[in-house]
């Protein structure tokens, strides 16, 4: 699908806005491994029934780890660049709460190009729970919003969400593969229209539509 993005200048480099940008490959493997371990720690803390002594040992170890990571901190708004197989680039915030590669609070979601849109898979554990055994509705909306914005980004149209509508069609379960798809469906001046779905076992559990507004480019 070819989307009319008039006027359609080049996709902007975030450095044009004064943001720090690093390549995806520049994120140390040790940091990626640490992010995964902290995700496991958060899940363990949320569900533990350990006794006081074990809890105190864990707290002390967490405090020691926090101190070890002190010092310089990455700038707020720092961006990461993902280079596509075709040589093009896509950008995201390094600490994005839904898909930031250095944010342990973000689920391990990776959206990849699929035809005219994006597709990804994620498993959400108990720390994303709302009703018993089900994903919190706020996280469902967050996942859809991320997918919608990423689809516009991938189409070369950097946008911010102006309006988001979410239809919760069925409960979305925890601890199972969830498939997310998103695509741009049209454009009108600065408005970009996008749709996305979350599926489990092929059935749509939630869908979202959004009106995005293009970010004005510098110059």
TrEMBL record:
<dbReference type="Pfam" id="PF03061">
    <property type="entry name" value="4HBT"/>
</dbReference>
<dbReference type="InterPro" id="IPR006683">
    <property type="entry name" value="Thioestr_dom"/>
</dbReference>
<dbReference type="GO" id="GO:0016787">
    <property type="term" value="F:hydrolase activity"/>
</dbReference>
<feature type="domain" description="Thioesterase">
    <location>
        <begin position="133"/>
        <end position="204"/>
    </location>
</feature>
<keyword id="KW-0472">Membrane</keyword>
<keyword id="KW-1003">Cell membrane</keyword>
<dbReference type="InterPro" id="IPR052365">
    <property type="entry name" value="THEM4/THEM5_acyl-CoA_thioest"/>
</dbReference>
<keyword id="KW-0443">Lipid metabolism</keyword>
<keyword id="KW-0966">Cell projection</keyword>
<comment type="similarity">
    <text>Belongs to the THEM4/THEM5 thioesterase family.</text>
</comment>
<keyword id="KW-0809">Transit peptide</keyword>
<dbReference type="InterPro" id="IPR029069">
    <property type="entry name" value="HotDog_dom_sf"/>
</dbReference>
<keyword id="KW-0053">Apoptosis</keyword>
<protein>
    <recommendedName>
        <fullName>Acyl-coenzyme A thioesterase THEM4</fullName>
        <ecNumber>3.1.2.2</ecNumber>
    </recommendedName>
</protein>
<keyword id="KW-0963">Cytoplasm</keyword>
<keyword id="KW-0276">Fatty acid metabolism</keyword>
<keyword id="KW-0378">Hydrolase</keyword>
């Amino acid at each position: 699908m070819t989307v009319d993005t008039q006027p359609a200048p080049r996709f902007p480099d975030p450095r044009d806005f004064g943001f720090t940008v690093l390549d995806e490959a520049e994120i140390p493997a040790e940091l990626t491994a640490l992010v995964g371990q902290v995700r496991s720690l958060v899940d363990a803390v949320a569900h533990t029934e350990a006794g006081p002594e074990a809890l105190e040992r864990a707290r002390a170890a967490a405090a020691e780890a926090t101190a070890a990571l002190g010092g310089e901190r990455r700038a707020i708004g720092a961006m990461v660049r993902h280079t596509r197989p075709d040589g093009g680039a896509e950008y995201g915030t390094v600490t994005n709460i839904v898909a930031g590669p250095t944010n342990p609070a973000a689920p391990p979601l990776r959206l990849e190009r699929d035809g005219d849109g994006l597709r990804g898979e994620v498993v959400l554990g108990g720390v994303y729970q709302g009703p018993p055994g089900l994903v919190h509705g706020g996280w469902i909306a967050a996942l859809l919003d991320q997918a919608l914005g990423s689809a516009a980004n991938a189409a070369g149209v950097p946008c911010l969400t102006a309006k988001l509508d979410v239809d919760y069609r069925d409960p979305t379960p925890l601890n199972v593969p969830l498939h997310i798809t998103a695509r741009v469906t049209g454009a009108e001046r600065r408005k970009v229209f996008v749709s996305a779905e979350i599926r489990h076992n092929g059935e749509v559990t939630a869908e979202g539509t959004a009106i995005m507004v293009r970010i004005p480019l510098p110059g």
